[in-house]
Write a structure and sequence with these properties.
8-stranded antiparallel β-barrel; two-stranded antiparallel ribbon; mainly beta; 58% strand; 14% helix; single chain; rod-shaped
Length: 356
């Protein structure tokens, strides 16, 4: 009977300890971290980029002047101000070579001899104009086709580019505003060769249903034009929409570049002068070459769009498209003429940025 109380006492003293040893142990409760907000695009950055560009140079306007391979052959009465050829030929018309050839002849005496008994005054009475005017500056153009078109003078420079950029962004809600400057070296180049064969036909007024004077010239032309973009740079604003680590943006601003354009044109001329449907002189002008160059520092505008992805808080990768237009670039030729070449290009670039 004494054993029962002892057992009860032991159970009371040690029973809770044994029961507690059987209870599993749990780690202390740690509250979860708060949900992380969207990526913050605010801050400065610097990076590098590589890409590929392709562009075009094409004639836009011309001013003529001076003597060149064909300068003076046609004079100022031919209106081809919308094409490069007018500038290359030096202000085309009909009072140069044609008038000089005819003026070297004793045309008044020759016509007097041909008309004979009709009398010396018949010329002015029939034509109503002075003989010198009819045979000189009043010659009119009947046909002009040199076998060349404006597209013959186009170039399409293309090549790789690589450089760096710096910028700064400010994010307000989902919208991101920023400014960026970049610069890149390029090897965008192209050259175009062309050739053409054509004719120029001019004549004076008619006398007794006959052309008093007619000039026919055969013209052969060959040439080459080259363009090379050495570097380009832009200063742009950026405006985008951010969804966490993804930023879609548009961009635009001012563009700078350095470009060299060179052209040469070699022309040879042959033909005849007819008086009253009778050939009186052969024309043979040896080949001569006209050269021109232009370019240098260019200033224009750029617009584009891009996509940027934040890999982590410091690094981001992006892909960007840009269009650049440098407007008209003047090319000056050694005959005193000039032409404007419109220059524009498209760029596709990929790069990385490091955010400070």
């Amino acid at each position: 009977m004494k054993a029962l109380p002892v057992t009860a006492i032991c159970l009371c003293l040690f029973g809770p300890a044994v029961k507690a040893a059987d209870v599993p142990l749990y780690a202390p409760y740690i509250p979860p971290e708060p949900l992380r907000g969207s990526h913050d695009w605010t801050g400065g950055y610097a990076g590098v980029h590589v890409g590929y560009g392709f562009g075009k140079t094409r004639p836009s306007s011309v001013s003529g002047g001076g003597a060149g391979p064909l300068g003076g052959v046609l004079g100022s009465s031919v209106d081809i101000s919308g094409g490069l050829l007018g500038g290359l030929l030096g202000g085309l018309g009909l009072d140069g070579l044609v008038g000089d050839i005819l003026d070297t002849l004793d045309l008044e005496g020759l016509l007097g001899g041909l008309l004979g008994d009709v009398g010396g005054g018949i010329t002015e009475e029939l034509l109503g104009v002075e003989l010198e005017g009819v045979l000189g500056a009043e010659l009119s153009l009947l046909d002009l086709d040199l076998g060349l078109r404006g597209s013959d003078f186009e170039t399409e420079p293309e090549g790789f580019l690589g450089g760096g950029q710096i910028g700064y962004n400010v994010q307000q809600g989902a919208f991101v505003f920023g400014v960026e400057a970049d610069i890149a070296a390029t090897d965008m180049t192209d050259s175009s060769s062309f050739s053409g064969a054509g004719s120029i036909v001019a004549a004076s007024a008619e006398l007794l249903d006959l052309e008093i004077a007619e000039v026919t010239l055969d013209v052969e032309t060959t040439g080459e034009i080259e363009s090379e973009l050495n570097w380009l740079s832009t200063l742009r604003g950026r405006f985008g929409f951010a969804v966490d680590r993804v930023l879609v943006y548009g961009t635009g601003g001012v563009a700078f570049g350095d470009m060299d354009i060179a052209a040469n044109l070699t022309t040879s001329i042959s033909g005849t002068v007819e008086l009253l449907n009778t050939e009186i002189i052969d024309i043979d002008i040896p080949a001569s070459t006209l050269t021109g160059s232009g370019g240098g520092l260019l200033v224009g505008y750029t617009i584009g769009a891009g996509l940027e992805y934040a890999i982590n808080d410091n690094w981001a990768a992006r892909l960007e498209y840009a269009y650049i237009n440098f407007g008209d670039v003047e090319i000056d030729f050694d005959n005193g003429s000039s032409t404007d070449m419109e220059v524009d290009m498209h760029l596709v670039k990929g790069g990385v940025n490091y955010y400070f």
